[in-house]
Amino acid sequence: MFACITLAINVAITGLIVGRLLYHRQFIQDALGREHGSRYMRIITMCIESAALVVGFNLVLIVLVLVKAQENAALILLQMMAQIYTISPFLILFRISHGRVHHNPTLEFRVQNAEDVINRDIPLQFAVANSPESTMISDAS
């Protein structure tokens, strides 16, 4: 009974989270372009992978309990339940802490490109508002 409730809750919550992320992904893609939605897909994949461990475990447990052929196998799985439920969130934390969620090789190129633009030696020029000719004054002088 507990495994059935846990299975239903995990599937429902994961479905709601994934649905919300897909909605935001579509909104971002409409606003900024298709290349900006890949980060959401990585997060969605990570959530589904984490939930799949618990859902798969619960399905096996439910089948073993309903079949009643191997009561010892169901008891072993019941004892493993706490460890499986603990590993699932740690998988998310592990991927985030090791930077496996937001790795994008084009992002590194964009950052380097932006640093090149910022670090260029372009002299600043200011217009003088009080001058009748509105001459340009350079900061290099």
TrEMBL record:
It comes from the Eukaryota. This is Uncharacterized protein. It comes from Psilocybe cubensis.
